[in-house]
Amino acid sequence: MPSAGDNTQPDKPLNPAVARPQALDKSAEAVTYREGAAKRTKTSEIFQAAHTLTLSSSDILSVSDLNQQARQLLERSFAIVQVEGEISNFVSPSSGHWYFTLKDDRAQVRCALFRNRSRFLKYRPKNGDRVHLRAKVSLYEGRGEYQLIGDYLEAAGSGDLQAAFEALKQKLQAEGLFESERKRLLPNLPKHIGVITSPTGAAIQDILSVLKRRFPAIPVTLYPAAVQGDDAPQQLHQALAFANRSKLCDVIIMGRGGGSAEDLCAFNDEALARAIFNSAIPIISAVGHEIDFSICDFVADARAPTPSAAAELLSPDREQLALQLQQYQNRLCQWLQNSLAHRQQRLDALRSRLRHPGQRLQEQTQRLDSLELRLHHANAKQLLRQHNRLSLLRERLSAQRPNEIIARLRPQPGLLQQRLTQALRYQLQLLGQRLAEQAHALHAISPLATLERGYAIVTGNDQQLLQSSAQVNLGDTLHTRLAKGSIRSKVTAIETRTDLSPFDPDS
User: Fold this and answer.
1) Quick one: CA torsion of 409, 414, 416, 418, rounded to 10 degrees?
2) Rounded CA gap, 20 and 8, in Å?
3) What is the pLDDT of residues 391-435, one digit of tens each?
4) Contact 197, 225 (CB under 8 A)
5) What secondary structure letter does DSSP report for 462?
6) CA torsion sign, 92 to 95 to 98 to 100?
7) What angle separates helix 202-214 from helix 307-314, to the nearest 10 degrees?
8) For residue 82, which phi and psi values (nearest 5 degrees)?
9) Are 334 and 326 in contact (CB under 8 A)?
10) pLDDT above 90: residue 161
11) Quick one: pLDDT at residue 236?
12) Which one, of 203, 244, 84, lies nearest residue 148 by Cα?
């Protein structure tokens, strides 16, 4: 059901101020009483007579009697009827009864389907479904409302509003208007909140109540617009455009209280959805209740189940902030105390190290005098030490008697030269003998010495040494080297004897 005041539609939604409800003109009703069919009197006389006439007690009905007679009249006048329409406001309490509204584009009627009938149905309807209902016409005496008491219910296809909703949802989703990547982050602490809703509805009161309780320091600007009716989408669009032009707020809440599907259809407008998508200011959609969904919910930067939830989403908890601020203050005070204590200690240390220049100069003078005395002492000790060493060296030198040593060693160079000459001669003689022995031994193993003993070296045409008769052929030219000269010969015969002794000259 729509919230109280949500059906109020201000004429011009562009001024961001709460519109005042218009006064209703009341016109007096003229009541005439007919005393007889033939009698005609003037109006003034009838008005005057109306104050004096009294009704018969038998003609007065109680409200209960009137509703009872009306119900009986309806039930007698109408047989079982079959009605087609779209379901909205469907509820199913724990009793198992179903209560809903059946509607078309021009009218609606309340319906009830009790548990003794609904439990046999395999089909469970939902808001937006188009159904066929078999029912009898009756009247609910407790509220005086005419209604249909259902006997059987079956689906007739999705309702027109739901079908249009699904078609627009699929279209905008295909175009990327619902993508999470393009949604903007909401400010953690808004500087200014804009609200687009009815100025007399419950939604603005809920939002202001939550903000007042949680964080009243945030300013709020209302951009009034109708939230239901034929002009509602255009007014919402205009209010959003005005909010973007004014650039007064950094986040916007757009929504209304709960209601039926047709009451919320203003927020399923395609132009309004595209305006929300193109808005330069982040928008929270807060339409209806938790179970209500609109196109604006999908295209907005964030969705809140109710307007109150949207206000809580944007406003920090004042008590929590105060507690956090107190914690920060305590931490800051503790840090300042620690820092001051540390700096005080450092200052004390620096003060203890800081001395008067005269005192420091006096200390430096004393240190200089001390160093001067130490320097004199060190020089005296060094001179004494060097003097003692010199005396010691002089004594050692005197003990060595260098003049006597020089006189004693003066004839030694001649003797040493003579001994060196003799040693060189002996060494040369020894080396000569060794060389002669090695030359004799080398000559003994030389090929030339072998040749001198009568041997010869024979080579073939290829200059290879011949060691066997198998290496030559008849007619080959041989070269024979002797100790003195060489012979060139020609092979005329070849002997292959192997029993000749190498030392037998006759063989």
Assistant:
1) -160
2) 11
3) 898 888 777 777 777 777 777 777 888 888 899 999 999 998 999
4) yes
5) T
6) negative
7) 30
8) -115, 125
9) no
10) no
11) 94
12) 84
Give the DSSP H/E element, type plus range, for residue 286. strand 283-287
The token pair at 406 is 């020089």
Q: What is the pLDDT of residues 200-237, one digit of tens each?
A: 988 999 999 999 998 888 999 999 999 988 899 999 99
pLDDT digits (tens, 9 = 90+) for 325-340: 889 999 999 999 999 9
Cβ proximity of 272 and 237 under 8 Å: yes
Output the six-digit token pair for 75: 């039930």
**How many CA atoms does the CB half-sphere of 494 hold within 13 Å?**
13
Are 53 and 36 spatial neighbours (Cβ–Cβ below 8 Å)?
A: no
Count of beta carbons in the 10 Å neighbourhood of residue 85: 23
CA distances from 146 to 69, 71, 101 (A): 12, 8, 12
Tokens of 4: 């109280």
Fold of the 190-316 domain: Rossmann fold (3.40.50)
Residue type, 356: H
Residue 298 contacts residue 173 (beta carbons within 8 Å): yes
Query: What whole-number distance in Å separates Cα of residue 275 and Cα of residue 300?
Result: 10
Q: Please report, for the chain, the start and end positions of each structural domain, with discontinuous segments joined by +.
A: 78-158, 190-316, 321-363, 382-441, 447-490
Supply the DSSP string of 180-234, one letter for each residue: GGGPPPPPSS-S-EEEEE-TTSHHHHHHHHHHHHH-TTS-EEEEE--SSSTTHHH
Closest CA to 459 of 491, 484, 498: 491
Fold equal for 78-158 and 190-316: no
pLDDT at 2: 39
First to last CA, the chain: 153
Q: Are 499 and 492 in contact (CB under 8 A)?
A: no
Tell me the fold of 78-158: OB fold (Dihydrolipoamide Acetyltransferase, E2P) (2.40.50)
Q: Alpha-carbon distance 247 to 403, whole Å?
A: 120
Other CB atoms closer than 10 Å to residue 472's CB: what's the count? Answer: 16
Half-sphere exposure of 144 (CA within 13 A, CB side): 6
Residue 121 parent element (H or E): none
How many Cβ atoms are within 10 Å of 401's Cβ, its own excluded? 11
Give the pLDDT confidence score for residue 288 in this predicted structure. 85
Q: Which residues contact 26 (CB under 8 A, 6 or more apart)?
A: none
pTM above 0.90, yes or no: no
